[in-house]
Amino acid sequence: MIVRLFAGRIAAVAILASALASCSSAPPVQLAASDAALVVETKAGAVEGVRESGLAVFRGVPFAAAPVGDNRWKAPQPAAHWDGVKQAKAFAPACYQGASNSVSGVPQNQSSEDCLYLNVWTPAKTSDEKLPVMVWIYGGGFSAGSTSAPLYSGEKLAERGVVVVSVAYRIGAFGYLAHPELSTESSKHVSGNYGLLDQIAGLDWVKTNISAFGGDPSKVTIFGESAGGIAVSMLAASPLAKGKFSGAISQSGGSFGATHSPPLPGENVQRLDQAEKAGAAFVGKLGGSLAAARAKSSAEVQAATRPTGGGGEVDAVSWPVMDGYVIPDDQHRLYEAGKYNDTPVLIGFNSDEGALFGGPVTKAAHESGVKDRYGPFADEVLRAFPAASDAEATQASRDLATDVMFGWHTLKWARLQTRTGKSPAYLYYFDNKPPYPAGNRLASAKGAPHAAELPYVFGHLDQQPAMPWRAEDRAISDAMVGYWTNFAKTGDPNGPGLPAWPKFSDADPKAMIFHGAPQAGLLPDPQHFAVIDRYMAWRRSPEGAQK
Questions:
Q1: What is the mean pLDDT of the chain?
Q2: d(Cα 278, Cα 273) in Å, to the nearest integer?
Q3: Domains in the chain, CATH or no CATH each
Q4: pTM of the model
C-alpha cells in the first residue's frame, strides 16, 4: 500500500489508501502541509501526529501487540490492524518498572505492561525524501527507562536532516525472565531476551513503515546509551538483526565480557541454563508455576524482583541471556570469528563513569573487593588501580568500575571489529565534565560521569537551566550532534567545519577526545585495559571458567 497523508473524514481514509495502493505513479505525500490533518497510513492503520517547529512528530505509535496476559514472557506479536485514525500525539506509558530513576523519571503509576509503542520525529517535507534514520534505544540497566524522557526528545537531531525514532522495550523481569517452562513452550526452545526481541520488532516496523515518514529503510542507524549501548552491541552480534540496520552508535555500551552466574558488572550475561535456574527461583516466589506467575499483577511481579544497588550490579532475571538464538554465543568469540553484523560503528565511553555508581569506598573494602572478584589477577588489578588511603580508594574503585563496565568493552569492540571486519570503527572518549553547581553530588567527580554526554548528544543543554553552561559546552554539543548525524547519513562522522575524526586502527589507536575543543588523541591509562584484557582472557580459559 502506498502511504498517504491526507485530511478528511475517517471513512475516506481506507477508500483513498486502497485507491492509491494500485497507483505507482502517485505524487509524494506533502508532510509539511499546514492546512491538513497530519495523518499517515502505516501497515497497521492510520495515525495522526502533530507539527512542532517545522517537524512532523508522531508519539505512541503501536509496533507490536500488548505483551499482557498469555503474551507476558513471549516474543512480541504483531500489532492488530485498526480502523479509522489512531491519535499519535502523546507518549504511551513506559514499560512497567520500579521507582523512578534519574534518567527516565517515570513514576511507577505511569508505567504499564502495555508499552510496545514508538515515536517519530521527521523533518521530511514529502514522503519520498528517503532521509537517513536514527533509532534510539534507551538505557536504564535493562530495568528502567522510557522513550518519554524529555532528554531523549529527537527534535534537535531531526533538525540536522535525519528521521529520529525511539523504541520502547520490556525491561526487568518482564523483559528478560528465563525459565524452563518458558523454554519448553517456545518453538526455539529458549526464553528470556524479550526486550531485545522488542527492539528487533521495532526495527522491523521501521523497515516496513518509515518510508511513509520520509525515511530511508535501507539507511538505519541504531544508537543507545548504557544498557541501550549494550543492546546495540548485542544487536550487532545477533543474526536476528541482520540487515535491519546499516550503522551502530554505542555510548557507554558493549558486551564482550565472559559469561558469569550470578551476573557481575562487566560480566553480566548468563548462559541459558544458568538463567533458567535463576528464573525458576524467581517464579517460585510467584506461586511456583508459570501459570501462577502469569496470573500475578504487574506490581506483584515487580515486587519479587531484587532491587539493584548503586554499584552496577544486576538482578539475575533482569538481564539479557546467552540463549543460542538472539545471542548465539559469547560475543567476544563471535567477533573473533567474524560472526556479526559488520556495519560502521561509532563507539565510546566517559572518563569517570564510575562516579555515578556507589558512594565512598575504604581502602580495605577496595582491596577485599578486588581480591574476591579477580582472584589470581587481584594483585595486577590493585597495581593498576592503587589506593594508599580511603580517599584514593574511592577514586580507584570508580576508575575500575569505569573500565571494567565500559572502557574495556568499547576498546575491545573497536579492536575486534578492526581485525575481523570490513567496516570502520570510530572511537570516542568523553572527558568534558559538565559544570555541576555546588551541592550537586557529581560536582566532585574527577571527570565526566556516566550519562553525562546525553544532553550534549541530543542538543538539550537548555533543558537544565540551573547548570551554568559554558561556551565550550555548547560548542561540544553542536559538534556531537553534527558528528552523530553525519555518521547516520554516511557511515562516517566527519563533515565540514568539524575536526577530523580518524578511523580506529591497532597501529594508530586514536579516539576523538571531547574535552574542550574536540581533537583526536590516545586513550589514557593503557595499562588499565591491558590487565582487564588478561583477566577476561583467563575467565575464558578452562581454569577461569570454573570461577
A1: 91
A2: 9
A3: 53-343 (3.40.50.1820), 354-547 (3.40.50.1820)
A4: 0.93
